[in-house]
Every structure is written in structure tokens, then in C-alpha cells.
Amino acid sequence: MKHFLPLDNLVAALEKLPGIGKRSAERMAFALVQNREGLARKLADALLAADEQVGTCSRCGSITVSREDPCALCTENRRANGLLCVVESPGDIIKIENAGGFTGRYHVLGGHLSPALGKGVADLRVNELLARLQPEKVQEVIVALGTDTESEATASYLAEVLTSRGVKVSRLAFGLPSGSAIEYADPVTLQRAIQGRQALK
To answer: How many Å apart are CA 7 and CA 57, to the nearest integer?
Structure first.
């Protein structure tokens, strides 16, 4: 599409979204520009509003409305103090919240250890996690990561660091298929996994 630079730019931008390949990006781009009901404008307005109004919670690392920092989950009085659930991304928090059954607070790592991609401990929010332990009197950390090799390595590292500081560390127990991520689990599976968590050794 050499003569349609605006469309090329749209395809290139859409292609950067997770799970969107070139063909999917092209189909989306054509659907947007051919829609006569103002879909492209609505999408642009929604993207702009999200960019301007959605931020990151300084405490847990999840998404929040820019003017709400710390976020609602960090400040809600009904939440159990001393219990933290560590996840890779804000999307995992939404899945766990929708499943129900967890009443503690959260901490977003921002990924997992990945030597192949050059992602180490310094690239994750581990220091921020450790800084929360004493002020929040954290007694237990549930490591709610996927079951792939890199997530397992991350969980083992966290277990070692946290237990050395006297914090109980548990892991989602069952229901998550090997090699899968939390974002693909259904609510019942997630709820059972949280209820049946086991201590890491």
C-alpha cells in the first residue's frame, strides 16, 4: 500500500498490539477506514482519553485513573492487610478480581525473568515489592504467575528472597494447565487455584 501512507501507518500501529499479526492489522485498518458510522473517530477519541486519563498506581503498579493514586484496590478498607498477590500484569488482576475469592492486595511485577530477552531482576518491580513488606506488615505473598519455565524461575526467585525476610510464600496450586498464563484461565479455575494455593519450598 505504498500510495496510502496513512493506512500503512495505521496498520503498523495496530500490528504492535499483542496477538495482532500483519493480516489482522490490515483487516482492522480497512474496517476502520471503510466504516461510515464514525468508528475510526470513536476509537481515536477512546484511545486519546485512555492515554490522558489512565495511569499507573505508584504502590501496586496496576492501572488506575490518573487522579486516583494509590488506586482503589490499594486504598479499599475491606481488603485484607498483610496478604499480597503478585502478578505479571494489570490484566491478571482483572481476571482474579472477576473470579472472586481473593480479598488481599496486589503487586504487579511487570513481567517475568527472561534471560533470552535480557530481562532480569532489575527490569521487574521486585524492589518495590520488598519495600512494601514492612510498612504494610505483609505476612503472606501469593505468587500468581503462569506455569511456563520463565514464570517458574521467577516464582522460585521470589520465594527465596521473600522467605529470607520471614514472609510466607505460596503459589497458585491447581487448575492452571502447564505452559499457560493466568490471562487465559476461566474464573472458576482461578478461584480454585487461589483457594488451593500451596507453600513454595
So the answer is: 35
Q: Who's near 90: CB < 8 A, 6+ residues apart?
A: 61, 62, 63, 108
Grid coordinates belonging to 132: 512494601
CA–chain centroid gap for 154, Å, is 15
CA distance 95 to 188: 11
The pLDDT tens digits for 98-152 are: 988 899 999 999 999 998 888 899 999 999 999 999 999 999 999 999 878 898 8
Q: What is the pTM of this model?
A: 0.78
Domain range 80-199, its CATH number among 3.40.50.150, 3.30.930.10, 3.40.1360.10, 3.90.550.10: 3.40.1360.10
| Residue 173 scores a pLDDT above 70 | no
Cα dihedral 88, 112, 155, 72 in deg (nearest 10): -20
| Domain boundaries 5-52, corresponding CATH code | 1.10.8.420
- The structural domains of the chain, with segments of one domain joined by +, span 5-52, 80-199
Angle at alpha carbon of residue 62, lines to 91 and 122, rounded to 5°: 100
pLDDT at position 176: 64
170 band by pLDDT with thresholds 50, 70 and 90: very high
